[in-house]
Amino acid sequence: MKKQPSIFGGSCIIASVCVGAGMLGLPTSGAGAWTIWSAVAICLTMILMTLSGWLLLEAYSTYDLRASFSTVTKDMLGSTINAINNLAVYFVGGILLYAYTTASGGIIENLIKPWINLGSFGLVICSTVFVLIFSYFVWHSTRIVDRISVLLIVFMGLTFVISISGLAVNISFDNLFDIGGKENDYAKYAIGMFPVALTSFGYHHSVCSMRAYYGEERKAKYAILGGTGIALTLYLIWVFVIFGNLPRDQFAPILESGGNLDVLLNTLGNVIESNTVKQMINAFSIAAILSSFIGVGLGVFDYLADFFKFDDSKSGRSKSWIVTFLPPLIMSILFPLGFLKAIGYAGAVATIWTCMIPALLVYKSRKRHHSTRFHVGGGYGLIIFTALFGVFVAIAHFLVMFNYLPDFQG
């Protein structure tokens, strides 16, 4: 008898899809809202993102186990909306690759600066070398990406635990709750955090894989809940230890740089006495970016290979590599926009396939099928609320961007 996959194993898969470089942007995006309101924004986002994943499971439940996100969307909502959805998935993947490329270049440049000063071309050279080396794994094969990802996740886990342990013993409750701070109104800044928080729970393209993995929806449902729960726990711990060590007013230079990770790491390093903890935080950050870069890169690579019908030969994979990695690298060189801004754009567009499309799919599914083998409670109220949450997050991003909402500057 074939052994059934464990729910814990599936939870770890979902958590690994969620957790990555996005979590590095959470402290900076939450600097205005600070501890309590950042926690509220992250928890609310986790709940909605879990429910929207369950809505996708319900929509998939009337289809074959091998049915993909694109197949179901095209059948339910038509070719035009499916094309918009696919474009949104690609845009988010592309802008994340752009953000990871820029961030990695800045971190590597700072790390090697004591030995090699590359001058004004430092960021360009480091970003280019990073892409050329690590995109090779994606070009080579999915198998090598699998093996590298396992190593990176183990390494991330070890460096995360050591980093958190080192930071936790130095938490200042005055810092954590901004006692004696100049401002008392934190709630008004929480809205601007939602796009980054949403990006940090973007696992929805993996829901169909979870369903196929278990062969049913019920276990996939609990795996999704377990995965988002693990991610939530890690995010809250990370945000708390950062806020407990780095005073709120010291986020000013980080925000001024657009949330660039090298500036965050430098600023954090200035308040940490232990060199070991500093090195572990740098190592964790690089591993998180690299893990996300390879994972997202593989997804975009396969998507574009299928879209352009490139074959799996060396020539075909080289073409896929060019359209996957070259545009984000060029954009990174020409417009180093800032890590946080790029993640915010990704979150605003990701609302299409994490909130709006799942809500539409379930609405159409319930109109077409009066009963399904898997059903999410909450009635049409939940469907409407999920869709409106997506609209709210997208609008919030642009309102903050155009200064219509309070934007904390430190």
From TrEMBL:
<comment type="function">
    <text>Involved in transporting aromatic amino acids across the cytoplasmic membrane.</text>
</comment>
<feature type="transmembrane region" description="Helical">
    <location>
        <begin position="280"/>
        <end position="301"/>
    </location>
</feature>
<protein>
    <recommendedName>
        <fullName>Aromatic amino acid permease</fullName>
    </recommendedName>
</protein>
<keyword id="KW-0812">Transmembrane</keyword>
<dbReference type="Pfam" id="PF03222">
    <property type="entry name" value="Trp_Tyr_perm"/>
</dbReference>
<comment type="similarity">
    <text>Belongs to the amino acid/polyamine transporter 2 family. Mtr/TnaB/TyrP permease subfamily.</text>
</comment>
<dbReference type="InterPro" id="IPR018227">
    <property type="entry name" value="Amino_acid_transport_2"/>
</dbReference>
<dbReference type="GO" id="GO:0003333">
    <property type="term" value="P:amino acid transmembrane transport"/>
</dbReference>
<keyword id="KW-1133">Transmembrane helix</keyword>
<feature type="transmembrane region" description="Helical">
    <location>
        <begin position="77"/>
        <end position="100"/>
    </location>
</feature>
<feature type="transmembrane region" description="Helical">
    <location>
        <begin position="222"/>
        <end position="243"/>
    </location>
</feature>
<feature type="transmembrane region" description="Helical">
    <location>
        <begin position="150"/>
        <end position="169"/>
    </location>
</feature>
<keyword id="KW-0997">Cell inner membrane</keyword>
<keyword id="KW-1003">Cell membrane</keyword>
<feature type="transmembrane region" description="Helical">
    <location>
        <begin position="189"/>
        <end position="210"/>
    </location>
</feature>
<keyword id="KW-0813">Transport</keyword>
<dbReference type="GO" id="GO:0015173">
    <property type="term" value="F:aromatic amino acid transmembrane transporter activity"/>
</dbReference>
<feature type="transmembrane region" description="Helical">
    <location>
        <begin position="321"/>
        <end position="339"/>
    </location>
</feature>
<feature type="transmembrane region" description="Helical">
    <location>
        <begin position="120"/>
        <end position="138"/>
    </location>
</feature>
<dbReference type="InterPro" id="IPR013059">
    <property type="entry name" value="Trp_tyr_transpt"/>
</dbReference>
<dbReference type="GO" id="GO:0005886">
    <property type="term" value="C:plasma membrane"/>
</dbReference>
<keyword id="KW-0472">Membrane</keyword>
<feature type="transmembrane region" description="Helical">
    <location>
        <begin position="7"/>
        <end position="28"/>
    </location>
</feature>
<feature type="transmembrane region" description="Helical">
    <location>
        <begin position="383"/>
        <end position="405"/>
    </location>
</feature>
<feature type="transmembrane region" description="Helical">
    <location>
        <begin position="34"/>
        <end position="57"/>
    </location>
</feature>
<keyword id="KW-0029">Amino-acid transport</keyword>
<feature type="transmembrane region" description="Helical">
    <location>
        <begin position="345"/>
        <end position="363"/>
    </location>
</feature>
